[in-house]
Design brief:
251 residues; Rossmann fold; 10 helices; 5 strands
Length: 251
């Protein structure tokens, strides 16, 4: 036999359901993400306050202990991913005893922290290849091209200071996104500034950006599937475009 619910009982059931569905008063609300501080001209050209990726930093210090580094790479994810995503072209560097000291997500200030905190100690590469800066403008819309360029220049100067016998092959920041995007215009402005660092001797500048673009200045999917990171084919294009000057510098 079914008994009708009293009004009081109905109210109790509804109140219980609401209490069950609602978060408790003691539940901790999600912590909002901090708003990034505005960029300033000084940030990009000074070492970051701390290491961005301690595990990778330790990995690089261990690589130094393992033996000679004849060819050093510094940069962000674009360089970091080369040994795996472009393995067949990376292996061509093997005779030069390469080391890839690049970390995904890093900006100029992060690289500066690493190279002033042990990653250039105890090594004597013939050439250091540098390509950095895309994350400065990719992470911060208020970042000025001249600020990025100042950070790149500081990295070059630091490498020469710590490795006086090493030549620097400075690469122009690679194209990303679409041809008419604001970030593409900022990259062009950065490269116009840093190309002046080429002294014809200890520092050479090379812009190979065009090899990644089609006739409409867009990036094909088989070169960079996400418009930023090279695929295996893209890394092959990078190797072929850079190898003549690199080989000359390694002599």
């Amino acid at each position: 036999m079914k008994f009708p619910l009293s009004s009081l009982t109905r109210l109790a059931i509804v109140a219980s359901a609401i209490a069950f569905a609602s978060p408790s008063a003691n539940a901790q609300a999600p912590t909002p993400k901090p708003t990034p501080l505005p960029r300033t001209p000084e940030i990009a050209c000074n070492p970051a306050a701390s290491v961005r990726n301690p595990a990778r930093h330790e990995q690089f210090l261990n690589r130094i202990k393992q033996g000679e580094v004849g060819l050093l790479f510094l940069g962000d994810s674009i360089t970091d991913f080369w040994p795996k995503a472009g393995e067949w072209s990376w292996l061509k560097f093997a005779p030069y005893k390469p080391a890839d000291f690049a970390v995904s997500g890093e900006r100029t200030e992060d690289v500066l922290w690493r190279i002033t905190n042990g990653e250039l100690e105890g090594i004597h590469p013939k050439v250091t290849v540098i390509m950095i800066g895309t994350n400065n403008i990719g992470h911060y819309q208020d970042e000025k091209p001249e600020w990025v360029a100042a950070g790149v220049q500081k990295i070059v100067e630091t490498v020469h200071q710590k490795l006086p016998d090493t030549k620097v092959l400075l690469l122009g920041v690679f194209p990303r996104a679409t041809s008419n995007s604001p970030v593409r215009q900022k990259i062009a402005a950065i490269n116009q500034i840093i190309r002046k660092l080429d002294d014809g001797k200890k520092t050479r500048y090379l812009d190979i950006g065009k090899v990644f673009l089609d006739a409409q200045d867009e990036i094909p999917k088989d070169v960079m599937s996400d418009g930023l990171h090279p695929c295996a084919h893209g890394y092959g294009l990078w190797y072929d475009a850079m190898n003549p000057l690199l080989t000359e510098m390694l002599k």
